[in-house]
Amino acid sequence: MKLRVGLGFDSHALIEGRSCVLGGVRIPHPTGPVGHSDGDAVLHAIADALLGAAGLDDLGTLFPDTDARWRGADSGKLLEEIASRVRAAGWKPVNVDVVVVTNGPRVAAHREAMRRRIGELVGLDAADVNVKGKSPEGLPAADGAGAVVAYAVCLVSR
Ligand SMILES: [Zn+2]
């Protein structure tokens, strides 16, 4: 069996009036991630980790933010598409682990829902998906508003 690991990173500023979707889960919160798509930094980081592990192009290359088709796009749909491309390239996801750093919504209250949703999108059991929330410990974002930063690793096998 051959194994490969991939690393993904993503970040979005949080602004008032945007709906807040993280890890594929809609979270009631006064701010949400800015972005061409729905701004789901967690799913974007996982997508790049999967693509990296499979040796495929990155998310920005496959789904450019200059392309009107992806405006307001549901990142869950993008991640499902990427998981199917990874499988088509002969790789099977083994597990996903994510760290979410944000001074916005509390991730802990939603982590089980995120694990289930990410598992559905990638084709893994929730037990093979981990999501950990971290507070930035008082560090404000550069513009003084909130932000969400996500790091993901994914193991794949063939
Ligand atoms: Zn993003």
Task: Give a written overview of the molecule.
With 158 residues, this protein is of the alpha+beta class. It has one domain: 60s Ribosomal Protein L30, Chain: A, CATH 3.30.1330.50. The protein contains four helices and seven strands. Strands 4-1-7-5-6 form a five-stranded mixed beta sheet. Strands 2-3 form a two-stranded antiparallel sheet. A hairpin with a 2-residue loop joins strand 2 and strand 3. It is globular, with a radius of gyration of 15 Å. Bound molecules: zinc ion (ZN).
Brief descriptors of the model:
single chain; 158 residues; alpha+beta; 60s Ribosomal Protein L30, Chain: A; five-stranded mixed sheet; 4 helices; 7 strands; binds zinc ion
Q: Rg to the nearest angstrom? A: 15 Å
CATH class: Alpha Beta
State the order of secondary-structure elements, H for helix, E for strand: EEEEHHHEHEE
Mean pLDDT: 92
Strand order of the largest sheet: 4-1-7-5-6
* CATH homolog superfamily: 2-C-methyl-D-erythritol 2,4-cyclodiphosphate synthase
The profile of the biggest β sheet is: 5 strands, mixed
- The count of β-strands is 7
Bound molecules: zinc ion
CATH overall fold name: 60s Ribosomal Protein L30, Chain: A
- The general outline is globular
User: Helix proportion of residues, in percent?
Assistant: 25-40%
Number of helical segments with 4 or more residues: 4
Q: Mind telling me which CATH architecture this is? A: 2-Layer Sandwich
What is the percentage of strand-forming residues? 25-35%
Number of domains: 1
Give the CA-CA distance, first to last residue. 6 Å
